[in-house]
Write a structure and sequence with these properties.
single chain; 171 residues; mainly alpha
Length: 171
């Protein structure tokens, strides 16, 4: 019986990092929104962080006993500058609504799904192809659940985004 291919090990290293980065970013966003007393959105981001932790645990279980490559930050081949499921700090706003938070998370789930789907299509070995397709399907299911939840939420009004206390900018 052959051991895992370098391609599979490289893929699993990426999957672990993707989920860890997602967890960390959602936790950062939750902490920031808690600091601004936006507890409803902070709670949503904490739930997303927990989901990322569960995914990381699943990937870690698959990778248990394997020696994954230790990659430096610039050695990850993400489609952008960050891991696909890491929500942008710039996309968050301290007065964002749950709907906006869900839309942000939906985009991240879709981004992660596209990353995994591309890996599945490009993989040369069967196990990498299978696992990447499985992860892509899982991200698609999460995206579908978020999209369904979004249907029940009101649209966002720009008035809700107005800043009651804008920063003082001396001229």
């Amino acid at each position: 019986m052959n051991g895992p291919t370098p391609e599979l090990l490289h893929f699993l290293a990426h999957a672990c990092e993707l989920e860890e980065e997602a967890h960390d970013r959602y936790t950062e966003l939750a902490d920031a929104l808690d600091a601004h007393n936006n507890t409803e959105v902070a709670g949503f981001f904490r739930a997303m962080a927990e989901e990322s932790s569960r995914h990381l645990a699943e990937v870690s279980l698959i990778a248990a006993g394997l020696e994954l490559p230790t990659l430096k930050a610039w050695e990850y081949d993400w489609p952008g500058t960050e891991a696909p499921e890491s929500a942008s700090h710039e996309a968050a706003h301290y007065r964002m609504t749950v709907r906006e938070a869900m839309e942000l998370a939906l985009a991240q789930e879709r981004s992660a799904g596209a990353f995994y789907r591309a890996r599945s299509e490009q993989a040369k070995d069967e196990e990498t192809r299978r696992l990447a397709a499985e992860f892509a399907d899982e991200e698609a299911e999460h995206a579908e659940r978020l999209a369904l939840r979004l249907q029940d939420l009101p649209l966002v009004s720009e008035v809700e985004r107005e800043d009651d206390d804008p920063p003082h900018m001396p001229e």
